[in-house]
């Protein structure tokens, strides 16, 4: 725990938005490398690209509400040697332009950076059309794509800087809301690595994105219940850190996965595939159970759809009881 | 660097490329006939006159870019590239075969000299926009980008998104070339989804439009030169072509959009091409 330099407690945490961390990271990446460019589909302020656009007006392109063009202009920029960050809401990119991303970015193996804002249930009142819950599945199925889902604003900034140095096509999943900041500037981040945020022996809880905070909350409650939960934070869903996950599950013998996305094809699916072939254990996947969301506040929706700390805790009891 | 050819020599090259297309498609046993034959004059003009390129150095940093947006027409590109010396002609008949660099639809990473990966329609012009923007950022405006599109392909919304973007940024280092052959898989373009007045459409989107006979090599070369000279707007050349050009039983017939010739049909087609439809005595007869 100490070497991860996490926040001291899950109480009284600073609040910040993952998209804000991305915005800061993008400006830094732009300062470090003049080939970093940005394009947006009419949501510049919303996906926090405005600071980059102001700092580097000659390297910022306003595409208009045209997500197919967003992805393919991005591919053209990358073919000509640029490192384009192309941003919209995840519901539209990759929601609307999956084929363009496959054909022009992935088959070409070029560093197009797809930034999907307002992903997940935390998009809240906008409702089901805008709560992108299928993006992880869409992106992880694509050969060559790296899928990142940071847990807070600080990690999002690091992920953005890491993406600028990565030669592959990447997808970054971002939340809209201010959410608790659980990592610090000193917390390590590397593409492809999962991190044991809380050590335990009885059950492994693997979480991604903003749900890692909720997993940590559940672990605190489980401790009171007499269950020692190990919380593994997986900010990279593809390539999955198989070594860290297998080591944890071999120790605990059961697992709960937690994500703010569809359980099919997401983190839970990836972990199930890994464990099914290597280490079958009792397992429960927390996430959207094959249906769409609806309007409501973020935390309210997490409870409504069974994704909050209480449900994670119940799932942990369930799998631990099946060992 | 690049040899200069007379129009007569280029016309003969276009005919050689057409013969190669027939041989490739016959050997492949699948693929598209009409579009590649119709585009042979444009690709001849490109590779043997218009483009700044070096077949011995496909990644040459100063080269012009040729994007083929309607990737299914790639046999014409392969045939022109082989004729230009990018790779041995013997490789042409590996088209669509396992392990070949000549994929059924072009993949940039498989064959040096391809500038893009295409097949799913509508993605070329926007990639041209991205490259044009990058060249501008890098002060490389002397490098020109050509994007060949099909007319049926214009059904795709992505094309029109790009058509709006290029004039916004005055990407005058792009020349779009539309292969206006009036056919697509299911039938005539004006029946499948009417394109109506293409010139007016592109002009209203902010492009300077040139209309030419796309089977007239001299007209193609002249239009490309004029397009480079026009700097106030990006230029769109609407090239009216004959689908299946040079093989009379394929010409104008949409049924030849997506099928290859059989052995007998290929033999007949090659005879027609060698004799220019009976106008001359074939030297290989």
Give the helix/strand layout.
The complex is a heterodimer of chains A (323) and B (285).
Chain A: E1 15-17, H1 18-32, E2 36-40, H2 50-55, E3 60-62, H3 67-79, E4 83-89, H4 98-106, E5 113-117, H5 135-140, E6 146-148, H6 153-165, E7 170-173, E8 178-180, E9 195-198, E10 203-207, H7 211-224, E11 229-233, E12 236-238, H8 242-252, E13 255-262, H9 267-278, E14 283-288, H10 298-304, H11 309-321
Parallel strand pairs in A: 2-3, 2-4, 4-5, 5-7, 6-7, 10-11, 10-13, 13-14
Antiparallel strand pairs in A: 1-8, 6-12, 9-11
Helix pairs in contact in A: 1-6, 3-4, 7-11
Chain B: H1 7-28, H2 34-50, E1 65-68, H3 74-84, H4 124-137, E2 145-150, H5 157-168, E3 174-180, E4 183-184, E5 187-188, H6 189-192, H7 198-204, E6 208-213, H8 217-229, E7 235-240, H9 263-274
Parallel strand pairs in B: 1-2, 2-3, 3-7, 6-7
Antiparallel strand pairs in B: 4-5
Average pLDDT number of chain A: 97
Shape of chain B: globular
CATH C-level label of chain B: Alpha Beta
Mean pLDDT of chain B: 95
Q: H/E order of the elements of chain A?
A: EHEHEHEHEHEHEEEEHEEHEHEHH
Computed Rg of chain B: 18 Å
- How many domains of chain B, as an integer? 1
What would CATH call the architecture of the largest domain in chain A?
3-Layer(aba) Sandwich
Structural class designation of chain A: alpha/beta
Q: Strand order of the main beta sheet of chain B, please?
A: 1-2-3-7-6
Distance between the termini of chain B: 35 Å
- Report strand % of chain A: 15-25%
Overall strand count of chain B = 7
Task: Please count the helical segments of chain A.
Answer: 11
For the largest beta-sheet of chain A, the strand count, sense and barrel status come to: 7 strands, mixed
**Helical content band of chain B:** 25-40%
DSSP summary: helix tally of chain B: 9
Helix-strand string of chain B: HHEHHEHEEEHHEHEH
CATH superfamily of chain B: Thiamin diphosphate (ThDP)-binding fold, Pyr/PP domains
- Give the CA-based shape of chain A: globular
